[in-house]
Amino acid sequence: MLELNIKNETSRLRAVVLGSAVNNGPTPKVEEAYDPKSLEHILAGTYPHEKDMVNEMEAFSAVLKKYNVTVYRPEMIENYNQIFTRDIGFVIDDVFIKSNILPDRERELDAIQYIIEQIDAKKVVRPPDEVHIEGGDVMLWNDYIFIGTYKGSDYKDYITARTNLQGVQYIKDLFPNKIVKEFDLVKSKIEARDNALHLDCCFQSVGNDKGIIYKNGFREEADYLFLVNLFGKENLFHITRDEMYNMNSNVFSIDTNVVVSERNFTRLNNWLRANGFIVEEIPYAEIAKQEGLLRCSTLPLIRE
C-alpha cells in the first residue's frame, strides 16, 4: 500500500507521478487547443516536437532520481498527451482526489489506475459531476489550502477556467480542519500573457516561508494582498508578465532547499540561490509552450 502524505509543496519528496511525452500524438488542430499558449504555437508552427519534450521530461526524471525519489509514470496511451499529471488528480494529507477534468482527458486517469490501486480505497475520492477542480489550482501550505478559481458569471464560456466555486466548497467540506482560501484568477481565451490557467501559473510557495508571485494574475487585489500579508513582501519574488507567460512560478520543490527550475529563468534562479536554495536547472522550454511546466507535470504522492 502507498501511504500518501502531502501537507505542503516543499517538504522532502519521496514519491511522485511524473507525466510522459512518449507517443504524444500529432500537433493538435486549432479547434483542439485547450489554452491560448498552445493555440499561439499551433498557429505559429512552433508547437513542440515529441522528441524534444521526451528529452526534457527525462532530464526532470533524472534530477528526481538523483534525490532518490520514487518516480511513477503513466501507462502509455497511443497518440495521447499525458504530460500534465497535475491536472488529473492531487493529494491532500493522505487522500487522493481524482479531478473532474475536461471530458477529453478522462483516459489520463485510466493510465495511472495501477498506482491508484496501490492506495487504500477509502482514501480515494472523486467529486460529484458539478464539481470542477484540477490539481494546478490546489496548493497546500501546512494548515492552509489555497485554491485558484474563477468567479466570473461567464465561467462556462472559459475552457481556461478549470476550478469552480463548487470545487472550493467540496474541499472545504472534505477538510473542515484546514483553512481554505480561494483566489479569483485572471482568465483569457486568446492571450496567454493574461491567462492564469491555474493558481500555480501566478503563485507558488518555495522553502518554508517564501513564494513566487505574479500580482496581475489575480482579479482582486485583495487576494494578492492576502498572500503578501501572509508571507511578507520581502519573502515574495515578484515576476513580470513575460516571466508569468514563461511559467516562472511553475517550478517544483524536491525539498525545502531544493528547487527544480527551467534553465532560462535567470532572474528567478539567481534569487533562489541568493536565498540559500539549491537550484537544479533543466531544459523545459518546449513543454512550456503548452502553458504548463514542472509543477504541472508532477503529481506528488509522498513527502516527509
Automatic annotation (TrEMBL):
EC number: 3.5.3.6
Protein name: arginine deiminase
Pathway(s) it belongs to: Amino-acid degradation; L-arginine degradation via ADI pathway; carbamoyl phosphate from L-arginine: step 1/2
One Pfam entry name: ADI
Catalytic activity: L-arginine + H2O = L-citrulline + NH4(+)
GO molecular function, one term: arginine deiminase activity
Keywords, in A-Z order: Hydrolase
